[in-house]
């Protein structure tokens, strides 16, 4: 999830921020499964802001090949790729484009060699 307004130290972020099509897909689920109208509206606004602010990086052929490496690495590390499918797909897009993953949850990307993970702290 994109938490740009809640990052403790914005200077810790890379100069250019990008988003993946998988992240947009993940955000698209939120409004559809919201428990009430106010949560639904907030999630829809969040999705629309992300779509307005970013041109998403696609999951392309290079990403598909990188996903094979990510899934194999996760299995070797004793993790189940299907359980963290969104994260594995995001990691594959990052690897295919030689980009870091910026996240408040670096453990989600543990066990993936060659992936640069930039941890950010967020206010709750």
UniProtKB/TrEMBL annotation:
PANTHER family: RIBONUCLEASE VAPC2. Belongs to the PINc/VapC protein family. The lineage of its organism: Bacteria, Bacillati, Actinomycetota, Actinomycetes, Micrococcales. Residues 10-110 form the PIN domain. This is Type II toxin-antitoxin system VapC family toxin. Its cofactor is Mg(2+). It comes from the Bacteria. GO terms for molecular function: hydrolase activity; metal ion binding; nuclease activity.
């Amino acid at each position: 999830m994109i938490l740009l307004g809640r990052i403790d130290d914005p200077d810790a972020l890379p100069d250019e921020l990008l988003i993946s099509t998988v992240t947009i897909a993940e955000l698209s689920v939120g409004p559809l499964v919201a428990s009430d109208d106010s949560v639904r509206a907030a999630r829809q606004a969040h999705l629309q802001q992300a779509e307005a602010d970013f041109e998403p990086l696609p999951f392309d052929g290079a990403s598909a090949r990188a996903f094979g490496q990510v899934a194999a690495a996760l299995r070797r590390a004793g993790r189940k790729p299907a359980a963290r499918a969104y994260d594995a797909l995001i990691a594959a897009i990052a690897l295919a484009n030689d980009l870091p993953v910026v996240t408040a949850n670096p453990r989600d990307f543990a066990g993936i060699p060659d992936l640069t993970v930039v941890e950010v702290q967020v206010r709750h």
